[in-house]
Amino acid sequence: MYGCCAAEAQAAPPCIEAGCCYNDAMQTDNGVTTMPRHFADRLIEAGRRKAPVCVGLDPVYTRLPSALGADQKETSASARVAAITTFCTGVLDAVASHVACVKIQSACFERYHAPGIEAIGRLVREAERLNLAVILDAKRGDIGISSEHYAEAALAPSPHADIDNGGGADALTVNPYLGADAMEPFLRTASAQGRGLFALVRTSNPGSDDLQTLPLADGRVVCDAVADMVRAVGDTEGLVGASGYSLLGAVVGATKGGDMRRLRERMPRQIFLVPGFGAQGGTASDVAACFRPDGTGALITASRSVLYAFESDGGMDWRAAVANGAARMATEVVQAVAG
């Protein structure tokens, strides 16, 4: 089903060779920049070439390998950012042969203020070099001009050569619970830049049940209504690519298996970003319903189970342990999708 399985990729990285790249979004013709390829088309292609898997970069300083100085509790903020950046750069190198995408958890960097934001920018550029798609997991949501500012900050490259603030990620997570009008500025920017969005529909945290499964008078529950809104907004003219998928995807948690099939039926053109795999308890069999019959339509994401695989791998070099963790995850997902 997929062009190269995790086991093959471990031996050689064919998916990051010339001619087999994700980040061909901005084409040039005689020095003139042309329109980028559609985000969903690029992501579906990347998932087929490798595996429909995403590794989350959610670094916690105190859990970094001791070789990076994580055992020094009084380290300065700048030294912590440097260690986190080194670690995440190593993770990118380790997983690039196995996965289609990485997801940068903005909060883990924003806590360090400007140096952390700059680190996001450096990691976006490094992922670009490795032909990995990048989702900025910032869960932005506001109205009017505020949404426009958030969208430009996350999805548009900085116009200032001396500033690298993380702009230009391939996709951004957004909160649709403010309504369709709150998503419109994000959609405009994403469409113009050849980027994508993932709207929170059914999240993986236990407390989400308190709101997202509340019954409505028409027989739906709240997350059904949000799914219907995401479909209506995302399936409009110009937002759906040749692959049949919209640039507006949906976040659907792996721990909410009972809702996946119903939400897939409600959102046939949305790529599902599926957190909760691994450390949160989601398994490969849990997420199979997120995919369409042709094996496309979802991107399964895990963070801790891959990032910190070295903690349980018996002294193996941390980079090798991370690579093995990504390869195992990719294999499990591919096998589950294949049935």
Provide the fold topology:
Layout: H1 6-11, E1 28-29, E2 32-33, H2 39-49, E3 53-57, H3 77-95, E4 101-105, H4 107-110, H5 113-129, E5 133-140, H6 144-155, E6 171-174, H7 180-193, E7 196-202, H8 209-212, H9 222-234, E8 248-252, H10 257-266, E9 272-274, H11 284-287, E10 298-302, H12 304-307, H13 318-338
Helix pairs in contact: 3-5, 3-13, 6-7
Fold and architecture overview:
The chain is an alpha/beta fold. It has a single domain, classed as TIM Barrel. Helix content is 41%, strand content 14%. The protein has helices at 6-11, 39-49, 77-95, 107-110, 113-129, 144-155, 180-193, 209-212, 222-234, 257-266, 284-287, 304-307, 318-338, and strands at 28-29, 32-33, 53-57, 101-105, 133-140, 171-174, 196-202, 248-252, 272-274, 298-302. The strands form two sheets. An eight-stranded parallel barrel has the order 3-4-5-6-7-8-9-10, surrounded by eight helices. α11 (284-287) links the parallel β9 (272-274) and β10 (298-302). The longest helix has 21 residues, at 318-338. The protein is globular and about 55 Å long. It starts with 5 loop residues before the first helix and ends with a helix.
